[in-house]
Amino acid sequence: SYELTQPPSVSVSPGQTARITCSGDALPKKYAYWYQQKSGQAPVLVIYEDIKRPSGIPERFSGSSSGTMATLTITGAQVEDEADYYCSSTDSNGTRWVFGGGTKVTVL
Amino acid sequence: QVQLVQSGAEVKKPGASVRVSCKASGYTFTDYPMHWVRQAPGQRLEWMGWINPGNGKTKHSQKFQGRVSITRDTSASTVYMEVSSLTSEDAAVYYCASPGPDIPTAAAFWGQGTLVTVSS
Predict the structure, then answer these.
(1) Phi first, then psi: what are they for B74, rounded to 5°?
(2) Residue A102 in contact with residue A7, Cβ under 8 Å?
(3) Which of the 8 DSSP states describes residue A79?
(4) Partners of B12 in the beta sheet?
């Protein structure tokens, strides 16, 4: 089955830039999506269709994609950005979703 | 505004079935698919399947084929997800999630989650 691979953890100091990668064979042809999940809460969409930011999501969150890798960047990370981040996409047929393993972002 | 409200927590015995509901409001129910995603304690998000509320067609993750049923009641703007033959590995928080008018391709909206406990 199709898989998306993320690093388990990323640490960054407040105000610095955090980058989270997501690799998958179908990403050259399929969009990547990014979700933020804080402890005990439902996920929140922070980036969709590789680069788009939903209304209400701070501008410090941005996305990019090149080849088989998508990247979520948090520019000027804040303490409140500490969370698990999941990338998501679809299989090559576009009919089934898949999630990456999640990346725990620590800001300290 | 778009809201997805799920049914309450469930405690089930191994081998039993559980049905979780998700009531949608704030948009035209039949316009967007409804997905189900679960998360076992300390584990990743896991996509289970989706339903097209307009025609009732479904698509499932191969992992859950044959053991998960997703249905809808258009008159109640509600989607149901049933898991049969429960084991301890099915203990998880189950979420419904849907795209929306401004973001038609992603899970823009999520229910609050339903905790399913499997215990003898």
Answers:
(1) -65, -30
(2) no
(3) G
(4) B118
DSSP H or E stretch at residue B84: none
The number of C-beta contacts closer than 8 angstroms across A and B is 58
Q: Do B106 and A48 touch (CB under 8 A)?
A: yes
CA-CA distance, B40 to B92, in Å (whole number)?
Answer: 4
**Mind telling me how many Å the CA of B66 is from chain A's nearest CA?**
16
Contact call for B110 and A44, based on CB within 8 A: yes
pLDDT band, residue A17 (cuts 50/70/90): very high
pLDDT for B35-51, tens place per residue? 999 999 999 999 999 99
Helix and strand totals (H; E) in chain B: 0, 11
What would you measure as the largest C-alpha separation in chain A, in angstroms? 41
Q: How far apart are CA B48 and CA B61, in angstroms?
A: 5
Q: Side chain identity at A106, as an amino acid letter? A: T
Contacts of B111 in chain A (CB under 8 A): 42
* C-beta atoms of B45 and A35 within 8 A: yes
Per residue in B71-93, pLDDT (tens digit) is 999 999 999 999 999 999 999 99
CB within 8 Å: B45 and A54: no
